[in-house]
Amino acid sequence: MHTEALDTPSWWARGLLFENCNCTVICPGHVHFSQNCTHERCKGYWALRFDEGAYGDTDLSGMRVIIVYDAPQHMIAGDWTEVLIVDDSASPAQVEAVESILTGRAGGPWEVLGRFVGTRLPTRVESIEITDEGALKRVAVEGLMEGTIEDIRGRDRSRPVTFQNMFNQVHAAEQVIATGETRYDDGDIAVETEGSHALHSKFDWRVDAE
Fold it and tell me: The whole model's pTM is what?
């Protein structure tokens, strides 16, 4: 599904982004969508904590959002199924803002990913809990989702194992490699992982209105 950035305000956002899918470490599709993922379907999520940002006049600070997806093994083929879950503390204007950003309607990095989505399920508004304990990060939606990622160990135990200068549409160039465990089922998408691909980074996005 193609999305266009029309009549949207300037916006910017910074915060935490972490993910887990059912691929072995590292997900081939994370490196590039043209590579075949580990299984027939790549199923996973992105969890986002907006530490600061604004969509026009709408403040994005404190927003918590999850994007859950079910994609083919060859992700570049498209026809992904995707759903956004927005924390129930969000105002209607904030929900509209993050929908515009994360579906790609507002341009920026998610516009590229939005082109691969064939079925976009209705946005859900739920209570989302995101905790960040450094090497351990968790996301939870009561009755719907439990997810945990933990950094893998490196030679120097005091530092995380990272990608440097890694190109990815939504992550920073430096990404911390982790493994994850997830349980999610909304009746349309079901994700179940254990010891599989995970990573995290600090995102920094900006789009200036033309």
Answer: 0.95
